[in-house]
């Protein structure tokens, strides 16, 4: 039976070769090409000729499909980014993209066939769409180079593609929608817009040592995959930012997002109906993100007896405004941690004392960061940002006034919006003297009341 089949296949292939060689003998080259193209247009012949060519070919192929099964193939994305970035003066097909008017032009290679050499080995890439319309990147290489391709080339392409993507990544900010607007399949939970806050760690006005510590902590977290795997801990970190209004809590979150290139999920607890909604929202967040709950003490009444509140929430069921402290804590420690990686959680508050200890204990909130009134060090950073000066003869006076007054970096910054250096520094000195005077009056009043 097998021998019979083999004979039949052999005679069919021989028949095809005979027809082909006859055509080649009697028809000119152009007509041969036309015939070949016409045959190739008939899907069954195309598949057959591709199979025959593949069988006799000394080349091997690796396909990266956009979708594998029902899942997006991240290797495809990396390969596509890598190929798109191969831009140089010899490339003839390029495409230009400008997402926003004020953003720079992004040039990408737009060839469907790309040839390159790696360690002396030739590689041929082709980008096309399969019958179902999904994109495929296909690599062709000589079989004798199997070891180079599978040993190092593909790893290099994927890693390079990922790092190009990370460099070009735009930070997004996502805000939760009320459940009324949610659609099926976990869609419509978050509204997404591009995040364009210019704050960086350089422009952040605070004590240099403290700033360095936070910076190093974030970088260690970002590069800490192996460490977290080794110690068997979920790859997440919590920061609690506390301090009076206008001291830079929101600015620090922006600087964190810009440094890490993580998206920000701005979680507005007051528009969440219950723990079930909270759970859905948190599960829909992606890796490499910062989940922010601003003014945690105002968003929820999280203080006092936890048990009493939770009981109330349970009794009233799903419909009640029942986002509870234990609901929040469970997701921070439990299910959510297990299903997500590389996430940062940031809580901000103006009143540290109001928070429940369970919420802010170490391990949940790994770092407590106080942002406070403007020091001379912080003032110098603001002066550099706003006025582009490193020193000035009025700095000495400002330094001694800052030691005696409580002024927020936001108020200091307000005085430096005037471009003229002398005028803005003198304005700041007047403001500091006013604050100092009113602080002294207050102290005197308190003393008199004490008498
Ligand atoms: N530490 C800081 N470094 C640089 N700029 C700052 C700093 N603090 C405040 N600012 C300036 O003041 C403005 C208000 O600061 P920000 O919104 O970060 O304060 P906040 O601590 O989040 O206040 P709130 O508690 O009211 O939310 C910012 O836009 C920024 O320009
Ligand atoms: Mg804020």
Q: Can you offer a commentary on this structure?
A:
This protein has 18 helices and 15 strands. The chain has helices at residues 2-26, 29-41, 43-56, 74-84, 146-168, 208-222, 225-231, 249-260, 275-283, 296-299, 306-316, 325-333, 335-339, 357-360, 376-387, 395-404, 409-415, 421-450; strands at 59-65, 67-68, 71-72, 94-97, 106-109, 113-118, 121-129, 135-142, 172-176, 190-194, 236-242, 263-266, 289-293, 343-349, 367-370. It has a seven-stranded mixed β-sheet with strand order 10-9-12-13-14-11-15. Strands 1-8-7-6 form a four-stranded antiparallel β-sheet, with helices on one face. A two-stranded antiparallel sheet has the order 2-3. Helix 4 packs across helix 5 and helix 16 packs parallel to helix 18. The radius of gyration is 32 Å and the shape is elongated. Adenosine-5'-triphosphate binds at residues 204-206, 245-251, 350, 371, 409-410, 413.
* Span of the ends, CA to CA: 115 Å
Report the structural category: alpha/beta
Task: Sum up the overall morphology in one term.
Answer: elongated
CATH class of the largest domain: Alpha Beta
Whole-number tally of structural domains:
3
Which kinds of small molecule does this entry bind, naming each only once? adenosine-5'-triphosphate, magnesium ion
Strand content: 15-25%
Q: Describe the largest sheet.
A: 7 strands, mixed
Q: What is the CATH topology descriptor of the largest domain?
A: Rossmann fold
Helical stretch count? 18
Domain AAA+ ATPase: 235-375
GO molecular function: ATP binding; ATP hydrolysis activity
Cofactor: Mg(2+)
Keywords: ATP-binding, Hydrolase, Magnesium, Nucleotide-binding
């Amino acid at each position: 039976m097998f021998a019979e089949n083999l004979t039949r296949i052999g005679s069919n292939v021989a028949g095809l070769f005979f027809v082909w060689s006859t055509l080649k003998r009697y028809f000119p080259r152009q007509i041969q090409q036309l015939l070949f193209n016409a045959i190739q247009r008939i899907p069954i012949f195309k598949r057959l000729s591709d199979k025959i060519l593949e069988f006799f070919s000394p080349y091997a192929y690796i396909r990266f499909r956009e979708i594998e099964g029902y899942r997006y193939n991240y290797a495809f994305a990396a390969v596509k980014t890598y190929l798109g970035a191969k831009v140089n003066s010899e490339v003839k097909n390029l495409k230009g993209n400008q997402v926003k008017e004020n953003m720079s032009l992004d040039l990408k290679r737009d060839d469907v066939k790309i040839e390159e050499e790696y360690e002396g080995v030739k590689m041929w890439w082709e980008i096309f769409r399969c019958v179902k319309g999904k994109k495929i990147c296909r690599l062709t290489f000589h079989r004798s180079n199997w070891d180079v391709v599978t040993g190092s080339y593909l790893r290099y392409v994927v890693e390079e593609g990922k790092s190009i993507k990370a460099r070009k990544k735009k930070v997004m900010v996502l805000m939760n929608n009320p459940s009324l607007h949610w659609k099926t399949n976990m869609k419509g939970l978050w509204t997404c817009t591009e995040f364009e806050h210019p704050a960086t760690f350089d422009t952040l006005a605070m004590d240099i040592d403290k700033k360095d510590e936070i910076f190093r902590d974030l970088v260690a977290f970002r590069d800490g995959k192996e460490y977290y795997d080794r110690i068997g801990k979920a790859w997440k970190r919590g920061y609690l930012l506390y301090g009076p209004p206008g001291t830079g809590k929101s600015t620090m979150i922006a600087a964190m997002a810009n440094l890490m290139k993580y998206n920000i999920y701005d979680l507005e607890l007051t528009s969440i109906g219950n723990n079930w909604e909270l759970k859905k929202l948190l599960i829909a967040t992606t890796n490499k993100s910062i989940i922010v709950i601003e003014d945690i003490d105002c968003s929820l009444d999280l203080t006092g007896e936890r048990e009493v509140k939770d009981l109330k929430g349970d009794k009233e069921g799903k419909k009640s405004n029942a986002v509870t402290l234990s609901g929040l804590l469970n997701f921070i420690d439990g299910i959510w941690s297990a299903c997500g990686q590389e996430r940062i959680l940031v809580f901000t508050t103006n009143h540290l004392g109001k928070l429940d200890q369970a919420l802010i204990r170490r391990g949940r909130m790994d770092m407590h960061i106080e942002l406070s009134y403007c020091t001379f060090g912080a003032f110098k950073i603001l002066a550099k940002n706003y006025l582009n000066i490193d020193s000035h003869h009025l700095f000495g006076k400002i330094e001694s006034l800052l030691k005696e007054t409580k002024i927020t970096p936001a108020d200091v910054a307000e005085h430096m919006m005037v471009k003229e250096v002398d005028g803005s520094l003198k304005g700041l000195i007047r403001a500091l003297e006013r604050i100092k005077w009113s602080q002294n009056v207050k102290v005197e009043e308190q003393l008199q009341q004490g008498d």
